[in-house]
Design a protein that fits this description.
The protein is an alpha+beta fold. The chain has one domain. The protein contains 2 helices and 9 strands. Strands 1-2-3-4-5-8-9 form a 7-stranded antiparallel beta sheet. It has a two-stranded antiparallel ribbon with strand order 6-7. The termini are far apart.
Amino acid sequence: MADWTVDKKEVKSTVDGDFILYKNRPLVREDNVICYGNVSDPYIIQMIIMSEKEYKGRKVPDQIYVQLLSTDTSKPMSARVVKDIMRSGLSDALDMGIAWLERYLAS
């Protein structure tokens, strides 16, 4: 069985305050919700972990509901959802969310 301990000196992530930056945008997880993006931008990504599965003795996210959200707080939450999709696996969910986010922020 693999040793899962991590030497923190080997971790190359950037920490800015309370947020981990991924591709120069904050990535924050609280319980089963992961948010990606700057709240000062017009859009962010919200990923809700709907289920988990076992992988090498660890629980990892399985089914993830991905939403592209408008950060316009004057709109009701239901009107802030621009796009949504269900994805299998965190990698697929994050890739889809980043593609949407970059496309919408560029327009």
